[in-house]
Structure formats: C-alpha cells, structure tokens
Amino acid sequence: MSDEDALTGHGIYLAGNFEIEEKLTAEQPQRDSQYRTYILSITCSGADRVRSFSYKIRATGYSAKNMKLSPKNVYYLRGAFFPRNRLDTKDDQFFFEASDWAIITNGGDFAHSLVDTVGITGLGRVRKIDPIVEASIQHLIPKNPTKDKITTVVTVEHSDYHAESKLPRVCQVEYRIRPFPNLAGTHKIVRLGRECLFHRYIKDFNEKTNCYIVIVNRVSPTSGSVDESEISASIGTKPSASGSKSGNPLKPVKFNPRAVNSAFKSPIITSDSQASMPFRPSDFGETSFSSASSKSMASLSKNQSADEESEEEAPVAAKKPKSRAAPKGTPSSTAAPSKHPRAPRACRGPAAGEVLDIASDE
Predict the structure, then answer these.
(1) What phi-psi label fits residue 144: left (phi over 0), alpha (psi between -120 and 50 degrees) or beta?
(2) Residue 351 falls within a domain, yes or no?
(3) pLDDT tens digits for range 134-151
(4) What is the DSSP string of 111-149?
(5) CA dist 170 to 124, 159, 314, Å?
C-alpha cells in the first residue's frame, strides 16, 4: 500500500524513558513557542540474542521555552512514532508531546539502565504470519521438553498521519507471540487482514526485514476487516435483508437530504387499507364551506317559501259579509227573511184573558 492511499488511525504510540543526547534545533529568541528536535536512543536487550543495541532516532516536539528539554537529562516522553523501515534508524521520527513530560534525573548521574524501557502500543492490520523457534525461551516452558515451542511472528502494517509531510505514512513492525500461558490461543485469533491491537516493549531490531521487534504480552483483535456475517453471528443477530452495510440493526438510518431540483414527494404515507365508513367526495360546493349561522338562516328561508307555496295552492273560502244592524229607534222597512221561521210568541195584554200576537205586523 502506498503512502498516498493509506488510511490514518492505525499508528504507533511510544511511551518510555529517553536520554537526550543532542539538541539539533537552534533557539529563536523572537518566538516564545517553537518546534525543537533532539537525538534520542532506543536501547534493546535483544529478542533471541544476548547483546544489547542502541538505535538512534529523531524526536520533535512543539513547546514554550520553559518546557524545552536539556541534553544529558533523562525524561519520560510519549507520542507518535514513524519508523522508515531502513537499516539506518536515525531518520525514524518520534513526535512527542512536548508539553506533557516528566523528568527522571538531571545530568549524567543516572546509575540505572534504560534497556527495554520503551513501551509500544500499535494498531494495524496483519500482513504476514510466520512460525519460528526461539532457542532462548525453550527452557522457560518445562512442559513437553522434547517438543519445540513455536513462536508466532506477526508482521503488522501501520499507517498514520505524518505531521511534517502532511500525508499518511506507512510502516511495518514485527510482533512476536510466544507460547506462554497468558497468550494461549492468541495465535488462533490473529488472521491475515484482521485489525489487531498489540502492546509491550521494543526488544530488538531485525536487520533482515528492517523492522523493530516487539515481544507482546497483550493482543486484542478488533472488528476491522471482518465480514458482516461474522459480526452478525457473534452478536446473535440476523444479517439485514435490506442490503445495509451496517451490522447493527439498532443503528438509525442515515439521513440523506433531498436535492433542490428533485421531484416533489408527498410526506403523506399511503396505505392499502380502506376505511369502514364511506366519505363524501371532496368536490363540494360553496355550501360545504358556509358557517353554521348561514346554514340555519338558509333553512329558515326555505321553510318560509314552502309555507307560502302551500298557501297559494290551497283554495281560499269567501268571507261571509256581515249585515249592519238597524238603529234602535228606527224600525226597518223591510224585515230580512229568516232562514228558519220562528213560532209566534204571545203575550198577555192589559185586559185579562186577552192574548196578543207580537209576531204579527199589526
């Protein structure tokens, strides 16, 4: 994989004790903070050999004047490491955190050794797996003394963002998994192409492959470069049938905003179900939008017009003219004939026994 096509985030992180051998960058009085470069050494005791070796590297950090490092002092430093996989290690760069360090000792009065005190944590993809037999560890495992103990050498490719070149930088490191009880079964989970996290100290440098050698005591495989079927089977869920690349069924669907020139899509969700109650068509007249008061007035006027029509159709009876009564003092000349003739009434006159007919004209 080329440096331009590499992915970032699979880097190497160093943390350990270093002695400042030399300062390469001159001070700039006009600037309070600046980049400063030093010469350090990684001292190793050897992976499968007795001799110790010291490998020089370049360390660069950005800090203020009061945080600069002094030569011949021992500091505890940590930061990103970029090996170039060359036999000459002086160009290997260590970008340490210049504002976060601890001083171990001042001057050259440090009486202890700095061998195998540089720890490494690396995340990368497995590119090569080779079994070897290390003679220096056979006596450490008394079980089956006649059988050789196999050490698994895993070559891992790291890629991370380089601060100076502004591009990803690719490098390789050899991690050795020895057949110790705390690492039993680890070689079975490390596969080609799988992303793993390794942790331990730098023990040696391989002059044949130009790679640093790390004797690991911790290996943690991640989910990187694992098929979707393996992830689903491991968590006990079925793979999604919708073709989604995500193996997590609880993950929300990613929102994709609609383009400006795209066709209009109604937000109303259609359904195949039908309502049990029939509804009237939506093309009503103006009366469907009238208020309740207007509807009541319209119904009242309609009732009145209906009453008028019924009155016009029904026959009207002629009114009977009323006869005017004659004045009391004037007798009528002609008496109106009576519909029903009355029986003559009689009354007694002044003389006894004389009966007068009051109904007669005389």
Answers:
(1) left
(2) no
(3) 988 888 887 777 788 899
(4) -S--TT-EEEEEEEEEEEEEEEE-GGGGGG--SSTTSPP
(5) 10, 4, 111
Q: Smallest Cα–Cα separation from 215: which of 251, 179, 250?
A: 179
Domain count for the chain: 1
260-290 per-position pLDDT tens digit: 777 777 666 666 666 566 656 555 555 555 5
Asked if residue 214 belongs to a domain, the reply is yes
CA distance 10 to 164: 18
Q: Residue 27 in 3-state DSSP?
A: coil
CA dihedral 219, 220, 223, 225 (to 10 degrees): -10
CB of 154 closer than 8 Å to CB of 191: no
Among residues 322, 57, 9, the alpha carbon closest in space to that of 160 is found at 9
CA pair distance 146, 193, nearest whole angstrom = 34
Distance CA 196, CA 83 (A): 19
Q: Nearest-CA neighbor of 12 among 225, 174, 133? A: 174
Three-state SS at 82: strand
pLDDT, the chain, mean? 78
Residue that has been written with the tokens 């950005």 in this structure: 62
Q: For residue 117, is it within any domain? A: yes
> Which residue type, as a one-letter code, is found at position 216?
V
Q: Is residue 133 part of a domain?
A: yes
- Closest listed residue to residue 194, CA positions, set 229, 157, 168, 151: 157
Nearest residue to 342 (alpha-carbon basis) of 324, 360, 325: 360
Alpha-carbon distance of 167 to 108, in angstroms, equals: 38
**Amino acid identity, residue 37?**
T
Cα(121)–Cα(175) distance, integer angstroms: 11
Phi and psi at residue 327, in whole multiples of 5°? -60, 155
Domain range for residue 58?
12-221
Residue 183 DSSP symbol: G
